[in-house]
């Protein structure tokens, strides 16, 4: 792809804050057909994905985007719970033949094959073991101990395939007093501190608008799996890697956590403000909102100059960041009054070239019509016969490679769509497959 033309932020902002343009697929990357072979970095790596909902499926989608062959094992006749999670009015988007299917499911399950398999049945376990012997990675997010109850735990699979990487994602980890508890994004966010620090100052806790703990756990376990694959190159042996929502969120506390561990300083909710950098906030303009800040004293002077109040930078209460942190309650009302004098686009004009941190707060329409979004291939349009419109728009891979490029090779699969092909690859005949279907094993 040729280098993208550099766009001024002013041009972007004006484009973004005027109206609500719709996605135009002529700007979108169109995914190749499934039969096109990927040359992704993980080409040849085989993944058995027993997971559902968000954290682990998000991980396996990343692996799939990087070229891995991911086989999603789903419950017979039901599938992943998220196949049934639809927003209001979504039913009309799908044909009857595609159901169960949803946008939520589609968001984290592209580039995968779907196989329905009853792991409680002896024959289902036998089929799974056949697949596991040829796999590089197995990932599951059952409660700890569930796979052992099925007779398919790590020790069993490791004996069948010593090179296997066995990845688990749970709510609280494989050990400890909370190990048996179910894992949910908001529960972990509450118990491990995220909700305590999220919300307006002196206001109630607020859930972030996305499943941040789930997705962060998926990112952590994806990195751990790749590290385990690298270790296998040296040792020839696989291993178990264990991630949890609770531990992920504790790890994400970063500086807030260290302030408690070292100073016993309790954290607070700051809204869009920053606990140790002032000013940094979302400011209401004449029409919308803008994020703006000053991360050092030089930037603060520049900000005050642009806002038309340079004398504030010389005020003894605000001359240094430490003083501004101490006197933020005196400073912010004055800043809010200044920002309300102009529209967002007028402020974006004023900030252009200033090197200050600033940006409009964009809704989804403006995000997905942003020239940078389009230039970086962050929208992919794939053919999908199960969609009323015949296509499905997906969010593109976040990371770009210079050689082994991530790709969207196939749309999210229908429930059990690839079961027959997978069984045939294991040597099962048409009659064998028919018998397995009649007994609901597949």
From TrEMBL:
InterPro entries, per database record: CoA-transferase_III_domain, CoA-Trfase_fam_III, CoA-Trfase_III_dom3_sf, CoA-Trfase_III_dom_1_sf
Keyword annotations of the record: Transferase
GO molecular function: succinate-hydroxymethylglutarate CoA-transferase activity
SUPFAM superfamilies xref list: CoA-transferase family III (CaiB/BaiF)
Annotated stretches, region: Disordered: 19-38
Domain of life, source organism: Eukaryota
GO cellular component: mitochondrion
Polar residues bias: start-end ranges: 19-35
Family assignment from sequence similarity: Belongs to the CoA-transferase III family.
Name of the featured protein: CoA-transferase family III domain-containing protein
